[in-house]
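Practice problem: predict the structure.
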Amino acid sequence: MTILVTIAFLMAAGGSLLILGLSPFTFLEGMAVMLTPKKTSIRSRIRESKNKKEPKGLKLLFMEVKEILRLTGKTSMFATLCVLAMILFVVGVLMALTMDNYMLVPVLAIAFFLLPFYYVKFTAGKHKKLMNVELETALSVVTTSYLRNKNTIIRAIEENLPYLNPPVSEVFKDFLMQTKLINSNTREALSGMKAGIDSLVFHEWVDAVAACQEDYNLKSTLPPIVAKLSDMRVVGAELDLLLFEPVKEYITMMILLAGSIPLMYFLNKSWYDTLMNTAFGKSLLAICCTVIFVSLAAVVKHTRPIEYKR
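Answer:
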């Protein structure tokens, strides 16, 4: 009966959207706008700058996902992620109601809602590693050309641009377009490159190149900066090797935990009935699901590629 009431509520909500001429995408895009910080007065901005607090929880997660989508050129996918999250939210609620476990409703609803966002964060790690490898190659060849022939940085980038791959090549193309067609101020164009790639090493390299525009003798600072990317790659490979065994053990334990429930049905039905139909069993099942999803979030957080920080 509860499932029928839930389905009726969802159908009523969908019918209300149709009557108002709204689509789910339009509705969730509006929610995304509401989550975006609004413009405030100068006084409130000054107060926020004095008492600046780091975002936490869902706000931090949404900000990280938005930034990842921006860097990968998929900003328009955020509304689709919100729609998918809402669909999975409903699926989680229906699954819990199907099992007649009301304690499991908030657990599955919240966990399924967050799955698309954590998936983006998990896949961003692989993208970040590829970005760092491509960035290491690009900075290495550009720096070598810049130092070898005593060329301008514009000439060095032009020589090596055909050998660079996206998305790094797009940043250097924008730099060349900026210096040739819009503004001849090389330092300003170099400063504008920072927004294209989220990497502290790249930002440091850009600052060093900008300093070389005033004093070419500072060129000796460029190779050590590029070497930091090599150090990050080596340390990252060692860290991946160290994390391989714990992650493998975690996946094995989660499979055993989730697989023991249907296996219990065939081995001992009385235990299965106790787990699924008693208050103690339902609460135990809710705790197990909570542990699975919380630990999954922790694994996603700690398997991100390492970043250089000053």
